[in-house]
């Protein structure tokens, strides 16, 4: 996944340091039920309303990564990914809201769950560093963790599109290649950091994994 084994160790060590939260995210009950097609509609609706707001802050963070990347070769995959999220993925949200009977008034009335607020604040913090490595740390957690749970479906998809498409959006050749590149990019940039900068990346990475776990947990909290 990375240019050299020495660089590869940075992302793997970040992931290992984020246990047990990393495994709690990638093996979360939400993902098990999604893959099995047994996820409760109210849980999915609650999750998607909050996640659409996550995506807003996430696209802004992608923009900061695009702006702070050290070379044009890095801006290209980030731009392509931003284009996918704001087209195919946003379209999925709108169709899923319709299928689940979630209208715009309901979406507007629901407050941010504390888990959403925490995650949005973390993404804003990373974005406002205007530092490529810090932006990458949070992006890598979001995309690598989602690829990891989506891969567990192993190509067997549940019948309803609300479930199946949320899996395939996070496990398809384009997404797999992007996540592989994103992780190798964190390894490349991480190899150039001093100890203090490395510690900042580690801190953001670990807090992002904890935020992912709390975000899935929140979907099961009473409305
Ligand atoms: C909370 C969360 N993390 C990661 C992703 C993947 O982009 C997502 N859609 N939502």
TrEMBL record:
<feature type="domain" description="Thiaminase-2/PQQC">
    <location>
        <begin position="17"/>
        <end position="221"/>
    </location>
</feature>
<dbReference type="InterPro" id="IPR050967">
    <property type="entry name" value="Thiamine_Salvage_TenA"/>
</dbReference>
<feature type="binding site">
    <location>
        <position position="89"/>
    </location>
    <ligand>
        <name>substrate</name>
    </ligand>
</feature>
<protein>
    <recommendedName>
        <fullName>Aminopyrimidine aminohydrolase</fullName>
        <ecNumber>3.5.99.2</ecNumber>
    </recommendedName>
</protein>
<dbReference type="GO" id="GO:0009228">
    <property type="term" value="P:thiamine biosynthetic process"/>
</dbReference>
<feature type="binding site">
    <location>
        <position position="51"/>
    </location>
    <ligand>
        <name>substrate</name>
    </ligand>
</feature>
<keyword id="KW-0378">Hydrolase</keyword>
<comment type="pathway">
    <text>Cofactor biosynthesis; thiamine diphosphate biosynthesis.</text>
</comment>
<dbReference type="GO" id="GO:0050334">
    <property type="term" value="F:thiaminase activity"/>
</dbReference>
<comment type="function">
    <text>Catalyzes an amino-pyrimidine hydrolysis reaction at the C5' of the pyrimidine moiety of thiamine compounds, a reaction that is part of a thiamine salvage pathway. Thus, catalyzes the conversion of 4-amino-5-aminomethyl-2-methylpyrimidine to 4-amino-5-hydroxymethyl-2-methylpyrimidine (HMP).</text>
</comment>
<dbReference type="InterPro" id="IPR026285">
    <property type="entry name" value="TenA_E"/>
</dbReference>
<dbReference type="InterPro" id="IPR016084">
    <property type="entry name" value="Haem_Oase-like_multi-hlx"/>
</dbReference>
<feature type="binding site">
    <location>
        <position position="143"/>
    </location>
    <ligand>
        <name>substrate</name>
    </ligand>
</feature>
<dbReference type="GO" id="GO:0009229">
    <property type="term" value="P:thiamine diphosphate biosynthetic process"/>
</dbReference>
<feature type="active site" description="Proton donor">
    <location>
        <position position="212"/>
    </location>
</feature>
<comment type="similarity">
    <text>Belongs to the TenA family.</text>
</comment>
<dbReference type="GO" id="GO:0005829">
    <property type="term" value="C:cytosol"/>
</dbReference>
<dbReference type="Pfam" id="PF03070">
    <property type="entry name" value="TENA_THI-4"/>
</dbReference>
<keyword id="KW-0784">Thiamine biosynthesis</keyword>
<dbReference type="InterPro" id="IPR004305">
    <property type="entry name" value="Thiaminase-2/PQQC"/>
</dbReference>
């Amino acid at each position: 996944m990375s240019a050299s084994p020495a660089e590869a160790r940075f992302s793997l060590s970040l992931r290992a340091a984020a246990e047990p939260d990393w495994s709690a995210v990638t093996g979360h009950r939400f993902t098990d039920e999604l893959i099995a097609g047994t996820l409760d509609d109210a849980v999915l609706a609650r999750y998607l309303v909050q996640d659409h707001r996550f995506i807003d802050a996430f696209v802004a963070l992608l923009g900061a990564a695009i702006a702070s990347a050290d070379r044009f070769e890095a801006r290209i995959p980030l731009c392509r990914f931003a284009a996918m999220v704001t087209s195919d993925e946003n379209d999925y949200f709108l169709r899923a809201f319709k299928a689940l009977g979630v209208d715009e008034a309901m979406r507007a009335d629901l407050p941010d769950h504390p888990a959403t607020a925490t995650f949005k604040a973390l993404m804003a913090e990373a974005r406002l560093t205007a530092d490529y490595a810090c932006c990458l740390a949070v992006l890598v957690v979001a995309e690598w963790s989602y690829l990891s749970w989506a891969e567990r479906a192993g190509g067997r998809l549940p019948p309803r599109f609300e479930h199946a498409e949320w899996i395939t959006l996070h496990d398809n050749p384009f997404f797999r290649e992007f996540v592989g590149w994103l992780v190798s990019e964190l390894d490349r940039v991480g190899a150039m950091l001093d100890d203090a900068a490395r510690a900042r990346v580690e801190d953001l990475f670990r807090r992002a994994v904890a935020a992912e776990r709390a975000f899935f947990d929140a979907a099961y909290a009473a409305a």
